[in-house]
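User: quick one, fold this
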Amino acid sequence: QKGACHMSFTSIQRFLDDVLHLPISRGHLVKVVQKVSASLAAGYEELRVALPWQEVINIDETGHPENGDHLNTWGFHVPGKLGFTFFHIDPSRSAEVLKQFLGKTFAGVVGCDYAGAYRKFLDETDAVMQFCWAHLIRDVKFLTTLPDAVTARFGKKLLGKIRILFRVWHRRDTLPKERWQREAARARQAILKVVRRAPPRSEAQNIAQRFRDHGPYYFTFLERPGVEPTNNGMERQFRPLIIDRKITQGTRGEAGRRWCERIWTTLATCAQRGRRAFAYLCEAIEAYFRGQTRPPLLLALPP
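Assistant:
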């Protein structure tokens, strides 16, 4: 009720009293939730330790309110049914958070937007980036709305070349490998050719500068299987958190932050791996009270 249904302690208290005839104080409910949080700590730590060893991770961040302060919820999403999703709430939005969880020697692929933290992480580590095309396309579409006819035409032409690239990409499983590689290379070069002729207006030059500085990292998905061209996989994982943020108005302190991180991580990972979250919660809580080893979250696969 508290983690998945976004219910307040008052609503849970009223439900238990009205439906189950269990009069329980809000303070006791808070203690119960904290015990559940403690039971999930081992599974949460299991995923944290696994993060630096992943080949592909999609990462994003969103705001998190706490007593008037603006914190950040970081999301790390390893795609696939054998992957997992990990959340961390932090005051910082810098590359130091990425170093903390991935390490300075991380050599996998990071799918992300073009924010400065990711570019700094790229400069200071061995990571490979896949910058999100969905974010880029939104910026290119903005060019088509500008009153400057030259810039608008540039935006429309660039959008056309991007559409060709993605038509080729969607045919990757139906074309012979060598033919697909040739067509993908042509589509890539066509985009770069248009970008090199960007008009002088600042909005167009900003797009061109991205490709001059980090062009290869927009095309990683053409070269590495399993890498998606957008960061939509991680952004979808944020939807339950955003609902929770609107209803609860965030957390009040350290204990609340740890609870949110652990329950959000557990719910998202169980859903991703096809495991029933309630069943896992019951196993984790029972093991906690019996002093037994907590059930693994990363290795928990459906029967």
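User: anything notable?
Assistant: The first strand starts at residue 56 and ends at 66.
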